[in-house]
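Standup notes
- HV: blocked on the assembly model, inputs below
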Amino acid sequence: MHELGIAEAALRQVAAQAKEAGATHVHRIVLRIGALSGVDPDALRFAMEIALPESSAAGAEFAIEIVPARARCQKCSNEFTPADGYLFECPHCHALGGTILQGKELDLASLEIS
Amino acid sequence: MVDVRDPSDTLPPPPGDPVKSGRRTVDLQVRILDENDRRAADNRAFFRERGIRALNFVSSPGSGKTTLLQRTLGALASEIGTAVLVGDLETANDAQRLRRPGVPVAQITTGGTCHLDAAMIARGLAALPLDGVRLLFIENVGNLVCPASFDLGENRRITLVSCTEGEDKPLKYPPMFSSAHAVILTKIDVAAAMEFDLDLARNNIRRAAPQAEVFELSARTGEGFDAWLSYLRALR
């Protein structure tokens, strides 16, 4: 369970980015979490509910967007969504493997500020 | 008499006025862990300058990281300069197990944190004499989930899974496998006794970690160790 640490790091980012943008209030925080990031979205939501009221962005809403994994087959270049989210077997030529195109995101996507 | 006034004239404004004056949305797309990423990049640069290759060993508790390192150090320490950083929540027991002449070892106790991060590695490096060191072994905290998110600046991530665990471990903890450079199936000397299905485990590793080199070995008997040592010698 490292999601509390991730939430705290996210809120430090929020404070830094809000300050840089000259904001006095943060109204909404959008996080983007990839399916291969190693972060459990439910646990992160729970951690944000604990950490957010203690942070400089207290009172802000937050949303977590999930980014599914996508891969490109190294053999036939077919782009595919891995079965069950992470099994890298090309559904077209059945080769194992592939280049991961997305799914490792662990980002602060946007802020609504004033 | 008919009232022709617009009824909305007398109604209060609707709650939650959608026009939020002065509010704006800024698109950022910044990494949540960018502080860790920066420190990891510093570590990586440090390793490059000194000609050190760093390996980050991750697994569940009890998969055999410390035993693997004990035997690896025993085989390699006299021919390659090695050093070890060991992460645990508490105690220095693993560091004591790994201590041997000529191999600097530093214990990082995370005080309850479930993973190592790049800043801890930087502090650990400051405590190690690194002259002549070519291979740095980092034994992460036993945890198959959390360490996956934290880049330490390592050159290779090595994920262990033992034959006393389930064959489906790679499918249950995909990020740790999809990010591994190599996967080591450990304790193969007890596979038969545990009725561990090696073929099923191999197949699951291939599907969850198709990019990884796979080793099967026993750190107790030494079976399969030559291929692993060749991999390390080639990294140097």
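- HV (later): unblocked. The radius of gyration of chain A is 17 Å. Chain A touches chain B at residues 1-2, 5-6, 9-10, 12-13, 17, 21, 27-28, 31-32, 36-39, 84-89, 96-98, 100, 106-114 (CB under 8 Å).
- Next: hand off to the docking folks.
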